[in-house]
């Protein structure tokens, strides 16, 4: 009896696992076979001569460097996650050699307006995430927005090869700050905004001309750290809202802080300070392979390096 129950449990476990695996596999976008090709344009957005040129160029590049670069263009991800699909592609294609892990995949999903450069572990040190992001943003996205997929892909391949050789230099004036995760960028923006906000608050509640001295002093900081790095509406808001708030504070009769020089005797200790009630900085509170026909993956590994983007 016990043997029958155990057998039944084992059968149910295997059956359930098979159904779940089948369901998951069915829900994922299929990865095409490599078929000895470096360029897979399933969306048919590239010209035939462009595909031929890329095949030849990438074969020559592999012959001279052993680095394997492949391109996959799909019409849609069909609801799949770009990064997950990209990893499944490189795991199946095994780009790069097993010894050097020197493979690169350029993945483009046309209808989703998404793209990704997946970099093998052996090339992550030279073709960095930040560099991949700049290639997507500066070389591919502008061409794709114009509908010129040939120019965008060709430019990306040139830049990828230059990046691996240490010869890629972006002409755009942005820096690595633009390549940060959006969440990190907004955390940094919040900290800077809070810091500048404290000084703006001091200026708003200052007595006399000091309020406008701080207004003039803070303006370039808002322009650089808020306008240039994040959004110009923040800078514009500061320029307009600060004077309006100051006018409201004066008309409402709010208590203002007085700036006292060392000889005024209004503050304890040496130096100058903001005083309202005798404390420093306070106001009742303190602050603070060799040919396309024989091309095959070499068993390279990928660890998620690279970057994703959109257009």
Polypeptide structure, described:
This protein has a five-stranded mixed beta sheet. A two-stranded antiparallel ribbon has the order 5-6. The N and C termini lie far apart (64 Å). 49% of the residues lie in helices and 13% in strands. Helix 4 runs antiparallel to helix 5 and helix 6 runs antiparallel to helix 7. The longest helix has 26 residues. By secondary structure, it is an alpha/beta fold. The radius of gyration is 30 Å and the shape is elongated. It has eight helices and seven strands.
Q: Which of globular, elongated, flat, extended, rod-shaped describes the shape?
A: elongated
Distance between the termini: 64 Å
Low-pLDDT runs of 5+ residues are 262-292
Q: What portion of residues belong to β-strands?
A: 5-15%
Keywords:
311 residues; alpha/beta; five-stranded mixed beta sheet; 13% strand; elongated
What is the topological layout?
Layout: H1 2-27, E1 39-41, H2 48-65, E2 68-74, H3 82-93, E3 103-109, E4 114-120, H4 129-145, H5 149-164, H6 182-204, H7 210-228, H8 232-251, E5 258-260, E6 273-275, E7 302-310
Parallel strand pairs: 1-2, 2-3
Antiparallel strand pairs: 3-4, 4-7, 5-6
In brief:
The protein has 311 residues and is α/β, with parallel strands linked by helices. The chain has helices at 2-27, 48-65, 82-93, 129-145, 149-164, 182-204, 210-228, 232-251, and strands at 39-41, 68-74, 103-109, 114-120, 258-260, 273-275, 302-310. The protein starts with a helix and ends with a strand.
């Amino acid at each position: 009896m016990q043997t029958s129950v155990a057998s039944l449990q084992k059968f149910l476990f295997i059956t359930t696992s098979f159904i779940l695996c089948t369901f998951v596999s069915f829900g994922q976008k299929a990865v095409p076979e490599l078929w000895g090709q470096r360029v897979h344009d399933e969306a048919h957005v590239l010209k035939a001569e462009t595909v031929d040129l890329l095949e030849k160029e990438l074969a020559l590049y592999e012959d001279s460097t052993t680095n394997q670069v492949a391109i996959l263009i799909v019409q849609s991800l069909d609801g799949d996650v770009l990064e997950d699909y990209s990893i499944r592609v490189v795991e199946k294609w095994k780009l790069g050699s097993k010894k050097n892990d020197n493979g690169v995949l350029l993945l483009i999903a046309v209808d989703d307006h998404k793209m990704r450069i997946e970099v093998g572990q052996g090339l992550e040190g030279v073709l960095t995430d930040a560099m991949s992001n700049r290639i997507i943003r500066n070389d591919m996205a502008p061409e794709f927005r114009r509908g010129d997929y040939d120019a965008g892909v060709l430019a990306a391949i040139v830049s990828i090869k230059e990046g691996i050789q240490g010869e890629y230099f972006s002409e755009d004036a942005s820096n690595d700050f633009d390549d940060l995760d959006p969440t990190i960028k907004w955390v940094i923006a919040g900290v800077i905004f809070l810091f500048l906000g404290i000084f703006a608050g001091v200026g708003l509640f200052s007595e006399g001309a000091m309020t406008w001295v701080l207004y003039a002093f803070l303006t370039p900081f808002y322009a650089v750290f808020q306008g240039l790095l994040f959004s110009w509406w923040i800078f514009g808001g500061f320029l307009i809202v600060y004077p309006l708030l100051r006018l409201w504070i004066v008309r409402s009769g709010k208590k203002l802080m007085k700036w006292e020089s060392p000889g005024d005797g209004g503050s304890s200790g040496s130096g100058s300070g903001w005083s309202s009630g005798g404390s420093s900085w306070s106001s009742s509170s303190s602050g603070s392979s060799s040919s396309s026909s024989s091309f095959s993956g070499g068993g390279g590994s990928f660890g998620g390096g690279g970057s994703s983007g959109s257009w």
